[in-house]
UniProtKB/TrEMBL annotation:
Family membership noted in the UniProt record: Belongs to the DegT/DnrJ/EryC1 family.
GO terms for MF: pyridoxal phosphate binding; transaminase activity
The organism's taxonomic lineage, starting at the top: Bacteria, Bacillati, Bacillota, Clostridia, Peptostreptococcales
Name by which UniProt lists this protein: Aminotransferase DegT
Organism in which the protein naturally occurs: Mogibacterium diversum
Active site: K191
Keyword Transferase among record annotations: yes
Residue numbers of N6-(pyridoxal phosphate)lysine PTMs: K191
Keywords per UniProt: Aminotransferase, Pyridoxal phosphate, Transferase
Amino acid sequence: MEFRDLKKQYAALKNDIDHQIDEVIASSRFIGGSKVSELEEKLAAYVGVKHCVTCGNGTDALELALMAWGIGEGDAVFVPDFTFFSSGEVVAILGATPVFVDVDEDTFNMDAASLEKAITGVVADGKLRPSVVIPVDLFGLPANFLEIRKVADKYGLKILEDGAQGFGGEINRQKACSFGDISTTSFFPAKPLGCYGDGGAIFTNDDEAAELIRSYCVHGKGKMKYDNVRIGMNSRLDSIQAGILLPKLAAFAEYEVADVNRAAAKYTELLKGIVATPIIPEGFLSSWAQYTIRLESREQRDALQACLKERSIPSMIYYPKQMHNQEAFSGENDYGVDYSVTNRLCDTVLSLPIHPYISDDDVNEVASVIKEFLGQ
Ligand SMILES: *Cc1c(COP(=O)(O)O)cnc(C)c1O
């Protein structure tokens, strides 16, 4: 059994994907060109925003967004304590300070009350300017943007939605990657919408930010590539990756999000009352980058993972370590924020195999090993 079966997906889409790759090679247009602009238009239409700018990966996408806002030394940027390293790394790369915020135990996403506590802690400390909040759509579920927007507005913060895992999610039928003042995603192969290498994208309705990002991602270009008006970076999506994403986006919109939701519902039906299954709040839709259960203790979680492994069932621990505990961030973050939820989650979470092509038999098998392990 595969954790995320990209081979099955390729078998389903092989003709279209191969055709796209052949076309790019035949055209010899490997950077930019019509595949990239066609993809950007389709992504923007899917998400429901005005601009989509593709780039090299999801980490660059976050960094480019912060660059467009001129974030740097003296800025405090609020990041969930329970996320992938990139969400905080990009803040530190630019010389700003990541301030970590605890998450909600049910949804794994940024807790609005903890955010407000972190902001008031930074204000009381008086050294940094609270500037941006980066809510992460963890495991495919959009963060609680309704609550976070209220807090952000109260303190004049911009919202950068890290939708690297959240593409395809929804709140009240509005798509993920449309909730931030700028939003980003990643096309890393294992993400909900993945390419066959690295890739990323930035979404916004803000014309000025979109134009700045288009400049920053090509060496700070001005009117053309050899007119450089600011220091930028080289971050582009290859034409081959754009070609691969075109049929993948069509399948994603047509059936993959629905199918992965069916698989998740099946897990929940089989495991409810036996372990803590994921909680999707009313009106929210997850694109299930992960299906993550919670056990009672670290010992129980680790023993279950070992038991699954014995039966050749892959599982992953996302994430074993809190951001505030990462050595790279040491010395920062003492604003009186309590990280007890993240601390507990790092010890008790376990992500199970899930993807749109998983069979009912595989879901049944995983669930029965878990039930047997827990003596049910
Ligand atoms: C994967 C991921 C990123 C980074 O994406 P890359 O394309 O790997 O650079 C950023 N944030 C989160 C939450 C992620 O899961």
